[in-house]
Every structure is written in structure tokens, then in C-alpha cells.
Amino acid sequence: MKEVLMVFAGGGLGAVSRYLINRYAGAAQQVFPWATLTANVLSCLILGFVMGWLAGREGQHTLVRLLFITGFCGGMSTFSTFTAEGLALYKDGMAVLFLLHVAGNFILCAAAIGAGLYLAELPFAK
């Protein structure tokens, strides 16, 4: 039951974080889906950091993984919205923005995980 509560708590905090990012994206969101890109990149940065931080620790950290990786990062990131927004860009004849959206999410999210892993190796994280 502890495991379910950790996912629940992390997922709720992640979803609220995504909502706040969407809320404060403002007019920029009308041109390009910046809020989704921001939420996805931040969740990947956090995911990479937590993965790297846990990798340097002894023992099982199941509850920490469930809280941050499964819960928070799962609740904050959004593949379904990313896909829907991308298809809307393409349907509206904005092929270049569609390609930037797709490439930006994949490239920046991969870079964010790498950056998170790197940050977890720095002295302040140990």
C-alpha cells in the first residue's frame, strides 16, 4: 500500500506542476506548444537526476523511485498532449513547427536526462 501512495502523491504533484506550467505559458502557447515542451524537458531532467542519484547509492530505493520517477515525472510529462499538439500543428499546415515540436521534444528530453545524470554526479548531489 505504501507503494501506491507514493505513486499517488508523486503523480498528483507532477500533474499540478504541469498544470501550473500550462497556466503560465500564456500567449506563447498559442504559437507553439511551449508548455508541453517545458513540462517534458523538466520531467526528464528530474528523472535523469533521480536515476543518477540513486545509481550511486547502496540498497533498494523503491519508494523514492515510485515517488519521483513513476509518480512525479509520470504526472508531469505528457506524451498524449505532445502527440495531440503535434498533430494539430501538422493539420493546420504548420509542417515546420510540427517538425520542430517533434524534434525538440525528443532531442531536448534526451539531453535533459543526460544533464540530470551529469548533475547527479556533481559533489553537491553526493
Model description:
By secondary structure, the protein is an all-alpha fold. The chain has one domain. The chain is built from 6 helices and no strands. The radius of gyration is 16 Å and the shape is globular.
Low-confidence stretches: none
Number of helices: 6
- Can you tell me the number of structural domains? 1
What does the main sheet amount to? Answer: none
List SSEs in N-to-C order: HHHHHH
Helical residues, percent:
over 70%
Give me the count of strands.
Answer: 0
Average of the residue pLDDT scores: 93
What structural category arises from helix and sheet content? mainly alpha
Globular, elongated, flat, extended or rod-shaped: what is the shape? globular
Radius of gyration equals: 16 Å
N- and C-termini, Cα separation:
30 Å
* Share of residues in strands: under 5%
